[in-house]
């Protein structure tokens, strides 16, 4: 066999292999796309029928759990967490009976290498923190440890990781809100505050910044800090939320922020407020001074 013929056959073999590889990738992409559409349909069904979905879920669970295998794609591994998170959100009490299966899954997935898998798992843990008081309490410390891994990572706020980070911050806030008796809140609440504002997952941003307003409105001591220690950070977060081009808060929350800032102007020592404003970038400082000016107040 001539050398030229051997080279030709090798090139043909490589071409066939590349074509097969491309075909397999397309097939896997199509499978993942179909699975995602199925997840959306199931989420809609759960939202519509709520607890009436449970008998079907009992059968579905046996198909969902194998999707969590390490040999599966990120889309496949997201499917169990997405569907079960919907169940927890729509009918939390009924979903508690599955916690022995899915809570360990969320914990394991919360530090997964894939950011989409992490995001969905951390969202699920946030729902458990909010709705699953009795089953979540024993794992609070472990969840905080796993959240800490996410928010302290050097690349946590890179674009590909930002939504996972935001869901970690949201889950930590829910732990502070619903499980304060189980944590060192004087230590953890400032850590949570320092992570704000969040800007990637806008749904979580709206929730988290609304919760920040609620804590300030009730003069949460551990959020405000001794001698107004954390007021500059709180004002900085509010300024970023108000000045952002993204919708980081609902209109209702933005109005609450404006009212809070005006109340702080009335109650804080003037030196404390002026000091807090110096931490802002010029555009934010101008915006807040405009909000706090008597002319702006008169026209509100």
TrEMBL record:
Alphabetical list of InterPro entries matching this protein: ARM-like, ARM-type_fold, HEAT, Importin_beta
Location in the cell: Cytoplasm
The organism's place on the tree of life at top rank: Eukaryota
Record-level GO BP terms: protein import into nucleus
UniProt keyword annotation of Coiled coil present: no
Keywords attached to this entry: Cytoplasm, Protein transport, Repeat, Transport
Name recorded for this polypeptide: Importin-5
Native source species: Nicotiana tabacum (Common tobacco)
């Amino acid at each position: 066999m001539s050398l030229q013929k051997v080279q030709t056959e090798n090139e043909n073999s490589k071409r066939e292999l590349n074509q097969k590889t491309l075909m397999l990738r397309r097939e896997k992409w199509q499978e993942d796309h179909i699975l995602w559409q199925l997840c959306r349909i199931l989420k809609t069904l759960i939202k519509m029928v709520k607890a009436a979905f449970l008998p079907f879920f009992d059968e579905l669970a046996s198909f969902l759990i194998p999707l969590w295998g390490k040999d599966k794609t990120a889309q496949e591994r997201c499917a169990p967490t997405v569907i079960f998170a919907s169940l927890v959100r729509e009918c939390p009490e009924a979903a508690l009976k599955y916690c022995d299966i899915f809570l360990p899954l969320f914990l394991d997935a919360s530090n997964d290498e894939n950011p989409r898998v992490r995001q969905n798992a951390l969202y699920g843990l946030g729902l458990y923190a909010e709705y699953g008081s009795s089953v979540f309490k024993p794992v609070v410390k472990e969840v905080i440890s796993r959240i800490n891994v996410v928010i302290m990572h050097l690349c946590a706020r890179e674009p590909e990781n930002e939504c996972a980070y935001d869901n970690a911050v949201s889950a930590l806030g829910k732990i502070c809100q619903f499980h304060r008796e189980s944590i060192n809140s004087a230590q953890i609440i400032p850590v949570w505050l320092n992570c704000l504002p969040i800007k990637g997952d806008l749904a979580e941003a709206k929730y988290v910044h609304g919760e920040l307003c609620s804590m300030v409105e009730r003069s949460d001591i551990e959020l405000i800090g001794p001698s107004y220690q954390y007021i500059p950070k709180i004002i900085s977060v509010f300024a970023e939320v108000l000045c952002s081009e993204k919708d980081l808060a609902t209109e209702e929350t933005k109005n609450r922020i404006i009212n809070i800032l005006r109340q702080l102007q009335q109650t804080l020592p003037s030196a404390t407020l002026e000091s807090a404003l110096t931490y802002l970038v010029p555009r934010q400082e101008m915006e807040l001074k405009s909000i706090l000016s008597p002319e702006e107040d008169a026209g509100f």
